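Researcher: We plan to redesign the surface later, but first we want a full-length starting point. Tokens attached.
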């Protein structure tokens, strides 16, 4: 059921949706409720999305809707997630997942809506496929880091196998993600997250065995070591990982988006208020490129 106009604000606030977006979404809810075709599509999407709750890679593909749909297109998936909330909460309860872990995980919806507003000046959801992981029982916030129940890709499995581990494509792994809203990426905070993850997945997914952790991020680009101190949190985070394989396609917009908030900022105008900002901007202005790093480390 689509929550009523009186109930929706509290639900959105629980999901950390920015205050300035609440009234807009309540008004949009009225438009949805008055459109039988839109409601039919919404209900069918929710049904497909929750059908395989908790199963890795069995969720509905979340595609961006045409810009011509305006606010309804930008926010359609927000309502899919809101209507899916009772199902994911029931799944979490069935698995015995603590309410605090559930709350902090699902609050990434609001944080990503803030990213949309910061980058575009409009309300909506920039990357619905990412939030689908949270609402499908595949990803959890555990301290400083997020951990996704995932499977090894072919190139990653090949690199790990060449290092002597008996793994193959499709084997289970924990994919590590680094949210930017949780303060310093300190070794202490990362150690704590990894300890929480070891306990969490052994307790709540005892039938699944995770031998390795992986990470696919520009923060693992070893070129950062040319610009940052060996004692910096990013460099120390990199040193946790072994390289699975080297990326050949540049990813210059990724660091710009994550560090400065807008992937389309002109390189010449990138500020240098911190060592990371200076690293990203100076490297690009010198004609260099950034690449996604693909790393791994054993969990056992």
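Model: Full-length starting sequence:
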């Amino acid at each position: 059921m689509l929550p009523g106009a009186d109930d929706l604000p509290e639900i959105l606030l629980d999901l950390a949706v920015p205050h300035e977006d609440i009234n807009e979404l309540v008004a949009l809810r009225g438009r949805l409720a008055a459109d039988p075709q839109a409601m039919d599509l919404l209900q069918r999407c929710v049904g497909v999305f929750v059908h395989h709750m908790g199963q890795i890679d069995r969720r509905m593909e979340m595609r961006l809707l045409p810009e011509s749909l305006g606010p309804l297109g930008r926010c359609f998936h927000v309502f899919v997630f809101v209507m899916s909330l009772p199902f994911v909460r029931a799944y979490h309860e069935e698995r015995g997942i603590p309410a605090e872990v559930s709350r902090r995980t699902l609050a990434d919806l609001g944080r990503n809506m803030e990213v949309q507003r910061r980058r575009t000046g409009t309300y909506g959801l920039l990357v619905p496929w990412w939030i689908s992981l949270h609402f499908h029982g595949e990803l959890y916030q555990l301290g400083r880091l997020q951990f996704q129940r995932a499977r090894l890709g072919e190139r990653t499995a090949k690199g790990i196998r060449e290092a002597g581990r008996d793994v193959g494509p499709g084997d289970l792994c924990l994919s590590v993600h680094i949210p930017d809203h949780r303060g310093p990426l300190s070794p202490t905070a990362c150690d704590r997250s990894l300890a929480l993850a070891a306990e969490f997945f052994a307790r709540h997914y005892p039938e699944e065995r995770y031998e390795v952790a992986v990470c696919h991020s520009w923060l693992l680009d070893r070129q950062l070591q040319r610009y940052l101190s060996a004692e910096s949190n990013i460099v120390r985070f990199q040193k946790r990982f072994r390289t699975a394989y080297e990326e050949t396609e540049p990813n210059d917009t990724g660091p710009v988006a994550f560090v400065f908030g807008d992937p389309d900022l002109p390189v010449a105008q990138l500020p240098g208020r911190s060592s990371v900002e200076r690293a990203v901007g100076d490297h690009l202005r010198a004609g260099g490129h950034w690449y996604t790093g693909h790393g791994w480390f054993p969990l056992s």
